[in-house]
TrEMBL record:
Belongs to the COG6 family. It comes from Nematostella vectensis. It is found in: Golgi apparatus membrane. SMART domains: COG6 (SM01087). Component of the conserved oligomeric Golgi complex which is composed of eight different subunits and is required for normal Golgi morphology and localization. Residues 589-608 are annotated as: Disordered. Keywords: Golgi apparatus, Membrane, Protein transport, Transport. Residues 599-608 have a biased composition (Polar residues). This is Conserved oligomeric Golgi complex subunit 6. The keyword Metal-binding does not apply. GO terms for biological process: intra-Golgi vesicle-mediated transport; protein transport. The lineage of its organism: Eukaryota, Metazoa, Cnidaria, Anthozoa, Hexacorallia. The keyword Transcription regulation does not apply. It is a peripheral membrane protein.
Length: 608
């Protein structure tokens, strides 16, 4: 039965619910506990009605709660809508801000990039400014090097700073061709002021240095050489410094010249030049040699001073001429004393040669317009004038008493003296070192007398050694040849007349153009031919018997042999002509070989 009851209860839903409720443990179900607590708030009476209306009350209460919730939720919704609207607006603002931030980020990025560019540009401008200042402005140490104190020496830093100023001044010309003309003009004006002050200081220092070059062998420092090279850009200052140098060296050279004349060298070696005043050639030659050496030394000094400049040879000659001008007066006085003392014609001519040689040698260094060269030339002319005066006096004495030549036509004593004088003059002239053309020009001024062949023949050979008198020797040789030809003609005529061939040859010359046989002509007949040949045979046997006495007076064997040989040649030529005439069949000579038994070749072999 119990089992049946259980089955019924399981099939009844209400029973199942009740069982489920009864089996439920309320203390463990929080939801039921909470529901019961909520139910206790409004289910106060446990009545049937209350139980029947419980569901409705719960539903009403649930509806009321829902309405309250709806109202509350409506307010919440309004707030949420408002919040949504605010959030939406905030979202828009955020999006707008995001866009702005994006734009700002791009702007910041662009600004940063531009900032880098600007920074680079600023750095570049700083570099350009530094480069501009470095190129167109002087450093403080360069300014100090240029200015310096008045008495401080010029150093290498000064020349470097001056070169820098000149470079900046030159570069400013490039600025004037750009838009920076104002800056270029200002910088150029500033550099011009620096340059003027620098050149003024350099000029003062160089002038002081040049004034100190008064020793015998001064030392030209490299700094002074650079200073002269820099001053070349200022021609006026450069000229003033050269004048100062020339004045200082002139004083030194004059002092050294006087010392060389009176004191000699250091320690007395070489000896004073005036100790040799008794020997005019050595005295004048030593003075000129010292002068030449001094000029050469000062020329080397001047080259050292101006080696970095573009000064020409003319400027150097002007300075050297100014330096040596002071020697002209003491040199001229001493040479005039020697010349006026009349040391003799040969000595005067030797002095003239020495003066001419050194005048030419020194003139090639100083030029012909130098005062010392003019002085040497004047002394040369004075020596030549005194020399010719001496020759004129000698010639006047000869003309006052002319000696006749001796019977042997030899030179007279006065002629020998004159020739000895001429030989001494020519020897002196030949020993000089004057060029050959100059010696020939000087010789043309000597008036050499013409002598007879005998006199010339005895004195010409010693003159052959002098190359500068070739024109005079040529003239004398021509005159000698003319006299020798006359002597040969006389000798040949004498032989022909004495040997009998002269008359026959004269008759032949008179009748050779006639068209008749010459054997019938008077003087050319057979008998005349025989007589002439007989006398000619005697001459052939002794040729020396027919010599004129004038030939024996010739002093040289060469001339005598020449006269005899050429006279014999003339005789042989005459015999050859007559032999041809006699052996010619047209002249009708019988047995011509008996008339002229010797051929011309045989006669020539006998006479030569």
């Amino acid at each position: 039965m119990a089992d049946g009851t259980n089955e019924i209860s399981q099939s009844n839903p209400l029973s199942r619910k009740l069982n489920k409720i009864l089996e439920t443990r309320l203390d463990n179900d929080k939801d039921i506990v909470e529901a019961l607590k909520a139910l206790s708030t409004f289910f106060t009476e446990n009545t049937l009605r209350s139980r029947r209306n419980l569901r409705g009350d719960i539903e009403k209460r649930s509806l009321l709660i829902s309405e309250n919730f709806e109202q509350a939720f409506g307010v919440l919704k309004e707030h949420l809508d408002k919040v949504y609207s605010d959030v939406h607006d905030m979202n828009k603002c955020c999006e707008d801000m995001t866009k702005r931030l994006q734009n700002t980020r791009d702007l910041i990025r662009s600004t940063g990039f531009m900032g880098v560019k600007i920074s680079q540009k600023i750095q570049m401008m700083e570099k350009v400014a530094d480069a501009f200042l470095s190129r167109f402005q002087l450093k403080q140490e360069e300014v100090e090097a240029l200015r310096g104190a008045r008495n401080t020496p010029v150093t290498e830093e000064f020349f470097q700073a001056l070169a820098r100023v000149r470079e900046i001044h030159q570069d400013c010309k490039a600025l004037l061709r750009t838009k920076q003309q104002t800056a270029g003009l200002e910088i150029m004006e500033s550099m011009a002021l620096h340059m003027e002050a620098s050149y003024e200081r350099l000029y003062r220092w160089t002038q002081d240095e040049c004034r100190g070059l008064t020793s015998d062998l001064p030392d030209i420092s490299p700094t002074l050489t650079k200073a002269m090279a820099c001053l070349e850009d200022r021609p006026v200052l450069f000229k003033y410094c050269l004048d100062e140098y020339g004045t200082a060296r002139r004083t030194a050279v004059v002092r050294c010249f006087i010392d060389a004349l009176t004191r000699g060298g250091p320690g007395g070696t070489p000896r004073p030049i005036e100790l040799h005043s008794h020997d005019p050639i050595r005295y004048v030659g030593d003075m000129l040699a010292w002068l030449h050496q001094a000029i050469a030394s000062d020329k080397e000094l001047l080259h050292s001073l101006l080696k970095n400049t573009s000064s020409g040879q003319e400027s150097e000659r002007e300075v050297l001429s100014h330096i040596t001008e002071g020697i002209s007066r003491p040199f001229k006085v001493r040479v005039e004393q020697v010349i006026v003392s009349e040391p003799g014609a040969v000595m005067l001519f030797s002095l003239a040669n020495v003066l001419k040689f050194y005048g030419t040698t020194i003139g090639s260094i100083l030029g012909e317009d130098a005062v010392i060269i003019v002085t040497v030339q004047e002394m040369n002319e004075l020596a030549l004038k005194m020399f010719f005066n001496s020759l004129n006096c000698h010639a006047s004495k000869l003309l006052e008493k002319i000696e006749l030549p001796p019977p042997d036509l030899g030179p007279t004593e006065s002629l020998k003296d004159t020739l000895n004088l001429l030989r001494a003059v020519l020897t002196s002239h030949d020993a000089s070192v004057v060029p050959l053309d100059a010696r020939q020009a000087d010789y043309s001024r000597l008036h050499c007398h013409q002598f007879t062949s005998g006199g010339i023949s005895s004195n010409t050979p010693p003159f052959d050694m002098y190359a500068f008198i070739d024109r005079g020797l040529e003239m004398l040789s021509t005159q000698t040849d003319a006299h020798v030809d006359s002597l040969i003609s006389e000798q040949a005529s004498f032989i022909l007349i004495r040997s009998g061939l002269g008359n026959v040859y004269s008759a032949y010359q008179e009748n050779k153009q006639q068209k008749i046989a010459l054997s019938s002509v008077h003087g050319l007949d057979v008998q005349s031919i025989k007589d002439a040949m007989t006398r000619f045979d005697k001459y052939l046997s002794s040729p020396d018997s027919l010599r004129i006495p004038q030939c024996e007076l010739l002093r040289t064997t060469r001339l005598r042999d020449t006269v005899y040989k050429r006279a014999a040649d003339a005789v042989c030529a005459t015999y050859n002509t007559l032999y041809t005439m006699i052996t010619d069949p047209r002249n009708n000579y019988t047995e011509p070989n008996s008339l002229v038994p010797r051929t011309p070749q045989q006669v020539t072999s006998l006479l030569t």
